[in-house]
Amino acid sequence: MENFILTVSFLLMGMGLRRLPSFPKETAQVLNLFAITLSLPALILLKVPQLAFSGDILVPVIMPWGMLAASALMIIALGKFLRWEKESVGVLLLLIPLGNTSFFGIPMVRAFFGDEGIPYALLYDQLGSFLALATYGAVVLALYGSGSKPTPASVLTRVASFPPFIALIVALASRSLTFPPPLLALLNALSGTLVPVVMVAVGFQLTLRLSPETLKPLGAGLSIKLVVAPLIALLFCRILGLDTLAARVAVFEAGMPPMVSAGALAIMAGLSPKLTAALIGLGIILSFITLPLLSRLL
Q1: Are 84 and 9 in contact (CB under 8 A)?
Q2: Angle, CA of 274, 76 and 158, to the nearest 5°
Q3: Which whole-number Å values give the CA distances from 90 to 46, 143, 254, 259, 270, in the listed order?
Q4: What is the DSSP track for 177-224?
Q5: What tens digit of pLDDT does each residue of 205-244 get?
Q6: How far is residue 150's CA from residue 139's CA, in Å, rounded to a whole number?
Q7: What is d(CA 121, CA 191) in angstroms, rounded to the nearest whole number?
Q8: Please, are residues 92 and 222 in contact by the beta-carbon 8 Å criterion?
Q9: Measuring CA to CA, which residue among 111, 144, 133 is closest to residue 271?
Q10: Where would you tag: which of 54, 71, 228, 231 has the fewest CB atoms within 10 A of its CB?
């Protein structure tokens, strides 16, 4: 509970800082860039080498892809049945299957599962959500967006140059090595900045804009993302008798709100900015209710 209170406190600080004129509009982007380039890679280098390779780690690797397929199928079916506009379907296909499993997910996993759950959250994010954004997300943008069409080369370059993904490769390759104490101290100091920096950034850019035309796809999308998807994941684990920490973290990550990075890409591609902002803003707010409830089921 103490970690959860700290996480919420940092979020509220970010919301408060946005009201101060001395903080520029780009503050959240700068904080996010710091977290992507330094904080998250440092955490990956510290935690991933601690993983014990077993069948357990397959769950957080496979789960995000299963949730992506299930969510996308539900959205396509609802879009046809309810005759949503193409832009709305595109936004939902981009944001609902892809959760905020890094910036928001890792602090929340730490709050509810402690440091022991972080390595599994990192696997879920880097081998699931991030790769899905770079591949599946590129396909959605190509089909529904109005911007430049991604190519296989551009997708591969995006993956290979992403600092957390580079850190993941380095961490997996250096599992048998022992970092010298000065490097460990540096990594610990940098990784400790992840939660405050990220949650202040999330609070700083948290917006909630609702309009009548967005209500139906908004409600359907968030219902799938915050309720239906994690319950499907939980049912899947129960049927297979999976009750390890890795499985519980994977189910928890399946209930994260829509990915902020995917929302930024949707807006850049001209896909319904109002619906995008509402999905991200309301999704984060509601997740402070749904995630504690989900944790009680695990």
Answers
A1: no
A2: 65
A3: 37, 8, 20, 14, 10
A4: ----HHHHHHHHHHHTTHHHHHHHHHHHT------GGGHHHHHHHHHI
A5: 776 666 777 788 999 999 999 999 999 999 999 999 999 9
A6: 8
A7: 15
A8: no
A9: 144
A10: 54
Q: Characterize 204-223 residue by residue with b for buried, 16 or more Cβ atoms within 10 angstroms of its Cβ, and e for exposed.
A: bbbeeeeeeebeebbebbbe
At how many degrees (to 10) do helices 245-254 and 229-239 cross?
160
- Quote the tokens at residue 251: 């189910």
Residue-by-residue DSSP string for 40-96: HHHHHHHHGGGPPPSGGGHHHHHHHHHHHHHHHHHHHHHHHHHT--HHHHHHHHHHS
Q: From residue 80, how far is each of 12, 72, 140, 210, 270 by CA, in Å? A: 39, 12, 16, 23, 21
Q: How many CB atoms lie within 10 A of CB 54?
A: 9
Tokens representing 245 are: 């920490």
Of 156-160, 165-169, 192-196, 232-236, the one with minimum mean pLDDT is: 156-160
How big is the chain by its Cα radius of gyration, in Å?
18
Tokens for 228, please give them. 């239906």
Which tokens in the block code for residue 6? 């700290």
Q: Read off the tokens for 226.
A: 């915050």
